[in-house]
Amino acid sequence: MAIQSILFFGYLGDLLGRSRDFDMSDAPVTVRDMRRLLASAGDDVAAAVLNPCVRACVDGMIVRDDAPVRRGQEIAFIPPLSGG
Amino acid sequence: MGCTVRLSPGPLAPDAELRDFLQIVAGKGAIVNFVGVARPVSQAGLPLTGLYLDHYPGLTERTLAGIAASACALFPVEDVVIAHRCGLVEPEQPIVFVGAAAMHRRAAFLAADYLMDRLKTDAGFWKREDDASGSHWIEPTGQDRQDRERWSQPHAGN
Fold it and tell me: What pTM did the predictor assign?
């Protein structure tokens, strides 16, 4: 998945941009791998993606850290929900 | 029985929502509706200039549909509607319209109350208040979480 766009919502969108491209040449296998891989991109990204309160989404579904990630899937990170 | 969920960045007209809902639920004995409006004051006590509801297209609609489906499963209601704003909402503008229709009033009241308690904590939004001091992302209050917990207790809703 060489370059992959990752989506960020809520305050993470302000902090990191709503969508940001990352080099994912070392294709992650699980969400946990992906968090570690993204964390090397910089301190602000590391703090966001390693925060256990920040949840990962794959193809628009909130998933656990052991969930698989495949090439071409939509990846997003979300802060705790605010509610309506 | 039907669950209807609508998410829109445009203005929400509660009177039109109620009119549509009354047509859909013709023949039911009890219709309860609730309108949530953007408060004119921020959590910091300053005049609110705007309330922004960030959402994740797809995920947000699924959280709303899940909440509506739970209400239909928990209470003897015939129809439920949730119409929700996203994007920038001006102070004193409606954010949410909720309707519940049942054969008898108790179920309709309970379902509408349940829908709002779940929406306040579990709807897929990230809210930002804009006031004179800047912009602040906000999370559900302790009271919101307590309100949601009411429904996991025995004799839920009492």
Answer: 0.91
